[in-house]
Amino acid sequence: MIRTQDLTMNYGSLRALTGLNLEIPQGELFAFLGPNAAGKTTTIKLLTGLLKPTSGQAWLCGHNVQEHPLQAKRCLGFVPDVAIFYDKLTPLEFMAFIAEVFEMERPRAKSITGKLFEQFSLRPYANEQIEHLSHGTRQRLAIAASLLHEPQVIIIDEPMVGLDPVHVRVVKDELKARAHAGATVFMSTHLLNIAEELADRIGIIDGGKLVAIGNMAELRQLQGHGELEKIFLSLLKNPGDDRH
Questions:
Q1: Is the residue at 168 inside a domain?
Q2: Were 34 and a residue from 6, 116, 185, 205 both cysteine, which residue would form a disulfide, CB within 3.0 to 4.6 Å?
Q3: 203 bridge partner residues
Q4: How many domains does the chain have?
Q5: Are 190 and 233 part of one and the same domain?
Q6: What is the per-residue pLDDT across 128-143, written as a single tens digit (0 to 9) for each?
Q7: Residue 178 contacts by C-beta under 8 Å, 6 or more apart in sequence?
Q8: From its phi and psi, is residue 12 left (phi > 0), alpha (psi between -120 and 50) or beta?
Q9: For residues 97 and 89, what is the distance between their CA atoms, to the nearest angstrom?
Q10: DSSP letters for 186-243
């Protein structure tokens, strides 16, 4: 459902991503880990069509992201690390706007919106302008909006930022449920415990290169460590140095 082939991105003389090859099948919850400036956000922008790669290709649901962007984006639910809204809209109006973008039938969109608002505790804020909502409430709205059209691929960057423990559990359960139902989930996070708890497989990127990939058993065998934190740190070129 997500595939990349030799995906490479340069920003001028800086190479941010080098020859990334990934194949993430239907129904897998994949965690993408790396230090700051490792290439995680660049990868996400390339997968979602926000950047054009220097070379290489990416596919979502079998659609080439560069050659067939509309088809690729129709199967995608995306939550960036900082969600962008039309702040003068209410959450209800914003969800109606998202439904129009994906050409959803109004009764179906209304029904799913109601379920998502209940699940993510958004009903009390349904008619408030988004600009007045807290960061955590906006994050819950962003996640709900990304799920409205029931996407086959979910790409989510730092999903737990700003969430209280109750809603962290709601999001964990929902991501696992979506993957179990057949969606492909690509989750970028700095929270190693979240990755270890949720992910079927984990990819670790450093200096723009994928340095390890596998489930926890495979990563332990690769590095000889039991804890993901030790595995992660042992793979980095310069732990604690954000310049690479």
A1: no
A2: 205
A3: 32, 213
A4: 2
A5: yes
A6: 999 999 999 999 999 9
A7: 147, 154, 185
A8: left
A9: 9
A10: EEE-S-HHHHHHH-SEEEEEETTEEEEEE-HHHHHHHH--SSHHHHHHHH-SSTT-TT
